[in-house]
Amino acid sequence: MIFQRFALGLVGGLVFALQAQATDITRVTSPSGVEAWLVEDHSIPFAAINLAFRGGASVDPEGQRGAINLMTHVLEEGAGEMDATEYASAVEALGARIGFDVGDDALTVSIRLLSETRDEGADLVNAALTEPRFDDAAVARVKGQVMAVIRAEENDPNAIAAKALAAAIWGDHPYGSSINGTADSVMPLSPDDLRAAKDRVLARDRVIVGAAGDIDAEELGLLIDRMLDGLPQTATAPLPAQATFAPQGGVMVIDWNSPQTVFAFAQPGVSLDDPDYFSAYLADHILGGGGFSSRLMEEIREKRGLTYGVSTALSNGVSGSSWRGGMAASNASAGEALALLRAEWAKMAEGGVTDQELADAKTYLTGEYPLRWDGNGKIAGILAGMQLIGLPIDYPDTRNAQIESVTAEDVARIAAEVLDPDRLQIVLVGQPEGVSP
């Protein structure tokens, strides 16, 4: 779906999901020097290539929040001599798929090509990247779609909570605002503004490539250069600075006329390069990331029926990390649900986990990840995502061993160091009863 964030949930989807049979990753360098990671699979005449341009919506021009997002979704609305309809027809005629999306950390191009028409498909990708038309009618049409999303979010308590939490924890950093922008920032954007926005992110020095399927290293290198031919060497905007988690905890209540209260909460997280990252990941699975087996689900839903669901996750973007979660409860029970959330947060920090909880979490996390992704398209996306967030190329071969090496003492230590209910920044959207800061 368009207009969705890309990176904040990246680790949960990418770090723990690469197929077991897809671990033979080859590092490829194109003739012009662009690096790519490749998993070959010649069982069907099809290849998937994912291009990720670092920076994404975080390099929006000042005062033009939403420009990168709008520009991204106009890229496929015509290129070179082809208008939007002609471009779509050309892609379809090749049996190809070319999709554009953007998030906080990257603008992504997802490419699916049949082997017999690879070169022609690469030429269409190149046209969109180097010769986008930005026709007035196309810009107006996509702008209307973005504005519809912005208006819908203004009346969605989940979106309201997410935006308020992001603003509270990240402040003026791009992470602190929606990639969609606002009506005031999006409506004035012109085709010339979109051309300038394109040059801020689409450049050879920003590209990351993941590929999988019926293509070898030499063929991939040539195809990459064909797709990127004519693209500027350097982007016109610097990459964003690291984000700083701003608040020291507390409760923000946003009055909303609804029978239930939506919760969004976060505290400082654990970075991917922290040696205790996997200990924190296991702690999160047991606390709230493990679905119905998690402590929060057991205490708040199963025992008391206060919510349909509560979840947590370690959220690791390129520029910052948080430990976050969400749920919803009736206004009348919001205070009790909040007290239980804080109590379980403190219990994990003070008491760690049991041996059985840890064993169950390890069994689940090491057993399910090979099943999560299937197909070359998903593998190509994973390979690009691994590079974006800085994972080593041998990660799929070492991941399970790193999880198995974590002890209950490791989990207790990182939980005690990081988890603190007093540092939780909590946003409540509704008319909650029994809530105190």
Automatic annotation (TrEMBL):
Residues 1-22 form the signal peptide. Keywords: Signal. One of its GO terms (molecular function) is metal ion binding. InterPro entries: Metalloenz_LuxS/M16, MPP/UQCRC_Complex, Pept_M16_N, Peptidase_M16_C. Residues 189-364 form the Peptidase M16 C-terminal domain. Pfam families: Peptidase_M16 (PF00675), Peptidase_M16_C (PF05193). Transmembrane segments: none annotated. SUPFAM superfamilies: LuxS/MPP-like metallohydrolase. It comes from the Bacteria. The keyword Cytoplasm does not apply. Residues 39-182 form the Peptidase M16 N-terminal domain. The keyword Lipid biosynthesis does not apply. This is Peptidase M16.
